[in-house]
Amino acid sequence: MNIRTALIRLARATATTMALTLLTAATSTATPATATTNDPGPEETVFVDAASLPADELRGLDQPIPYAEYARFHGSKSAAPRAAADPAPGDQQDLRQECTNHAAQAKTATGWLKSRFESCQKRPFDLVLRDIRGTTTLGRLWFDQWVLGFAYDGSRRVDYVSSIENIRVQPIPTEDAKKWRIGQHFHHSVNASSSDADPLVTAPQTVNRDELLGVWDTQPHWNLTYTSPDKGALFDQGNQQRVLLTVAMDVSASSPNSAPFTGGSNLYHSSVRYDYAGPVAGKHKGTVFSKARVELVMSQKDPAVNESAVHVYDALNRPERTFPSWPGKSVPGSKEPLRRVVATKKIEDNRKKSIKECKKVWGDYAGSGLECDEYPFASTKEGSTKGDNRFSVRLIDGKDNRKGGERLNEMYTLNRVLDGDPFYVKITN
Q1: Which of 138, 169, 237, 403 lies 20 to 30 angstroms, CA to CA, from 414?
Q2: Spatial distance between the Cα atoms of 58 and 18, rounded to a whole number of angstroms
Q3: Whether 315 contacts 398, CB under 8 Å
Q4: What are the angstrom distances between the C-alpha of 301 and each of 294, 308, 403, 428?
Q5: Which residues pair with 287 in a beta bridge?
Q6: What is the dihedral of CA 256, 260, 265, 270, to 10 degrees?
Q7: pLDDT tens digits along 170-196
Q8: Residues near 351 by beta carbon (within 8 Å), at least 6 away in sequence
Q9: What is the dihedral of CA 226, 230, 233, 234, to 10 degrees?
Q10: CA–CA separation, 292 and 381 (whole Å)
Q11: Helix crossing, 306-317 with 398-414: angle to 10°?
Q12: Contact 249, 265 (CB under 8 A)
């Protein structure tokens, strides 16, 4: 069926003289307003999830037309051809592909958190256009919302690349989709109670973009940068200049004939932490996506750390094989996070108690080339001195033990894991 035929068929089935409002999946279903002979007010607007509508109400609205094709067909003078290639840098292209491969997570409000330094949201929208009485369907709009996030190890900044893409429309003949608009509106807040003293964030100059569909179609991307100034190295005075930031975004959509749609609030939100923690974090300052899951991954087949990996695997999955031994023993790190500790005395106390436990089980092992391996690690709050006996010790090869410690410290610094930050442990075969 060609475009003209589809539009004519839709026109015959649909009334065309009502004012419009945009209906979206981002809102909850409201009770339809009662039709009256008077002009309805904005309070009678009904927002409906397209997926919640009966199939018969969407009949004939299942033939999306790419916006550029629609605009050309309707003689738009502003329908410029799309660029032949996406100008996005290679790192953005890679993240977009990975984001697409994690579609279920990517369409959530937080998006898919690849790491502490990369995140993305790809959220599809399916919006239905109706009159303000909620009785007449007048068109349909589809698009994808993207937000790519980049934090930096070594810089107190975070960048977002936001876009509206893959726009498709199917209006009735009397409705002009070239006049429809979509908006992205960013806002932020600082959690002062959880931040260090005097937390400051500098927002980008432009945080709102409300455009006609044609503008989005030809210029889909825009960039936002949030920075946090610092006062130099104060970590040796106990001030890590941590700033906890939440960046959120609302989506709006409108038609000239409709009451503006403003129901798409907080459809994206991102949690960020800035710090200037010094050498304990690796690079002295940086920014992370604080909700990202951090894992220490070790393989039982890695000859450099296989004994360490087997010990941790046993502690997590076969605690009855580990010492100290007691009925019902469980060890955290897989489902329950471990939390880093940086206090030197706490780390030393953990090691002393673990060595004492090794000697209790195996006696004096001096000169054997073996060392006392402990899990959870001495550099965690769940170490052996916590007091709940949910730990394990084992004699393993000394080189393996030291290499395992190196891998742990690398994980800390590569992920900017600070004191009290949670992380998990994953052992592969």
Answers
A1: 237
A2: 18
A3: no
A4: 22, 11, 14, 8
A5: 274
A6: 30
A7: 998 888 999 999 999 999 999 999 999
A8: 374, 378
A9: -110
A10: 20
A11: 80
A12: no
Length of the chain: 429
Task: Return all residues near 404 (Cβ < 8 A) that are at least 6 apart.
Answer: 298, 305, 308, 309, 373
Q: Are 253 and 181 in contact (CB under 8 A)?
A: yes
Confidence of residue 289 (pLDDT cuts 50, 70, 90): very high
Looking only at the bridges linking them, the beta strands covering 208-212 and 118-131 are unpaired
What's the pTM value of the predicted model, to 2 decimals? 0.86
Domain closes at, from 273, 289, 305: 289
Same domain, yes or no, for 282 and 154? yes
**Residue 20 lies in domain:** 3-80+90-289
Give percent helix, percent strand, percent coil of the chain, each to the nearest 5.
Answer: 25, 30, 40
Residue identified by tokens 């003293």 is 197
Q: Are 207 and 186 in contact (CB under 8 A)?
A: yes
Q: Residues 227, 233, 235, 239: is their CA dihedral positive or negative?
A: negative
Residue 384 to residue 349: CA distance in whole angstroms = 8
Which residue reads 């003689």 in tokens? 75
CB atoms within 10 A of CB 245: 22
Q: Residue 289: enclosing H or E segment and its boundaries?
A: strand 286-289
> For 67-126, what is each residue's pLDDT tens digit?
999 999 887 654 455 544 455 666 788 999 999 999 999 999 999 999 999 999 999 999
Instruction: Map tokens 């890695």 to a residue.
Output: 302
CB neighbour class for 1 (10 Å; exposed up to 12, middle 13-18, buried from 19): exposed
Question: Looking at the structure, do residues 107 and 193 belong to the same domain, yes or no?
Answer: yes
Q: Which amino acid is at 324?
A: P
